[in-house]
Predict the 3D structure of the following.
Amino acid sequence: MKMRNVAITAVGSYLPPRIMTNDELAGIVDTSDEWIVSHTGIGTRHIAEGETTSEMAIKATENLIKRFKIDPERIDGVIVATATGDYPGFPSTANLVSRHFKTKGGAFDLAAGCTGFIYALDVARSMILSGTLKNALVIGSEALSTVIDWEDRNTCVLFGDGAAAVLLEQAAAGGLAPALLRSEAMLAESLTIDPVSRHITMDGKAVYQFAVRAIGEIVTDVLKAGNLSISEIDWIVPHQANRRIISATSRRYEIPEELFYLNIERVANTSAASIPLALSEMEASGLLKEGRKILLVGFGAGLTYGGSLLTWQRS
Ligand code: ACO
């Protein structure tokens, strides 16, 4: 019988060993630990020292292979969600990952800012269901420290580096529901990597207001699409941009704040890597049990946003 479900069957992650504290940042720009913690919820971030986005993606995949005893020879497609690929155009970061693991299926990068992982999951899911791919490695990997303006206190305190990978395969039950993918491109310039300076630029207030609305709308619409109520959800895994965004959304949309899984305090905003990094941590600490309902929510540059319902099922 043809299976119509696609599930995450393995996860892995990698964080570069160098940890940068808020106090260290206060020695670079006019800021303080107190300001950063109270305005963002961020305490530390990991910073890549010479490691590229593809190298971190490979290490995250090696972690996945080791943790879940996956034979790399059976990995088919590779999709990397990133805004900081090793090369500005081509080859794609996914091709560099594919070369390392000698995969033969389609390999390409996907650009949808911090929503990239949600978009990539849905693309991979569709390609597996259509028969184009047997399975797919979906990776979020970012070396944001290479595009941070280290003289701009408005942005340099917000971001960190890291990578995480998931393996998507057909499953008998559960898995990923079709995603909701959205774009609000009138606000495209409110969050950019400037093509000349190659630095992140951000209209913080516009992004903040958008983010609160985007999370609220996606949670509401994913619940509606699945005919579920919030009490049936075990976890919401949001893009980790800012703790205040989560608190404001929770108040405005009456979503219990304790449903949100947050690791922003330790890893800051890792853009496309943030949702799989959280999933990898949750799996390692036993939070993802069979049948658990997890609502994934992304929002970011584009502006893009989206989400999907994941029923944890590993086979
Ligand atoms: N340390 C100290 N002071 C700072 C810092 C800092 N690191 N950054 C900004 N300030 C100052 C500003 O210069 C400003 O000073 P001024 O009034 O003298 O001009 C003051 O703090 C207030 O600035 P606001 O921008 O109003 O600060 P706000 O309270 O709105 O917080 C923040 C800024 C945290 C960036 C907020 O706008 C926000 O959360 N925006 C969402 C954007 C976000 O999270 N982006 C992440 C990337 S996007 C994504 O992942 C989707």
